[in-house]
Amino acid sequence: MGSFSSRPILVVDDDPAARVFATSCLERAGFTTCEAENGENVRNLVSGTRAQLVLLEVALPGASGFEICRELREEFGEQLPIILVSADRTDELDRSAALLLGADDYLVKPLDADRLLAPVRRLLARSGAAAKPKLTEREQEILSLLAAGNARSDIADKLVISRKTVAKHIEHILAKLDVHSEAQAIASAFRDQLVDNGHPEGRRPRPTRQAARVRS
């Protein structure tokens, strides 16, 4: 699979034949896959498998691929590539709606191997280029503490820095991870193994000086 990650591509489709076709094409191209036949727990599957891309059918039993796409984008930010597919919703308006909801591409069934693999490779190459953002040591410490459930005020106290400084570091973290909220940053950090047991890349926060003055 070259430089692509060994993390799986999640194929979500209630049509067994469509799932078999998609997973077979992807696996022949060297990708690892996992499958789901409905929209239940897709977010948990993405987190649990650390899926690097989601191929998502629009029409799912009891769920809308559009809505699932929106939820995934809200939780995981821009770093998770999402491709919506459909045999029924084929109008240009459907494609526009998908892109507005956060999909990276929209494919009309029936698919063939080339039409499937081209956007997959393109999106993975794009996401892979930013998969390991360079955080400073301080940013890693703060991301670690966020992942451990600490509020900004707690982080300021533990690191003996001002809340304003914490806020500025978090602003930089969100920008580097290409996300829009602390929750998205934490989800992205766990998915991309920027944190391990609450500590980014195996690092533990530096000892703090309890009696020191708060630095601005």
Primary descriptors:
single chain; 216 residues; alpha/beta; Rossmann fold; Arc Repressor Mutant, subunit A; five-stranded parallel sheet; two-stranded antiparallel sheet; 9 helices; 48% helix; elongated; disordered C terminus
Q: How much helicity do the residues have? A: 40-55%
Put simply, the count of helices is 9
| Number of β-strand runs | 9
- Write the CATH homologous superfamily of the largest domain: Response regulator
**Could you tell me the mean pLDDT?**
85
Distance between the ends: 47 Å
Structural class: alpha/beta
Radius of gyration (CA) equals 20 Å
Question: What amount of the residues lies in strands?
Answer: 5-15%
CATH class of the largest domain: Alpha Beta
Largest sheet, strands/sense/barrel: 5 strands, parallel
Q: Could you list the spans in which at least 5 consecutive residues all have pLDDT below 50?
A: 198-216
Tell me the CATH architecture of the largest domain. 3-Layer(aba) Sandwich
How are the strands ordered across the major sheet?
2-1-3-6-7
The run of helices and strands is EHEHEEEHEHEHHHHHEE
Please name the CATH topology of the largest domain. Rossmann fold
Coarse morphology: elongated
Summed up, the domain count is 2
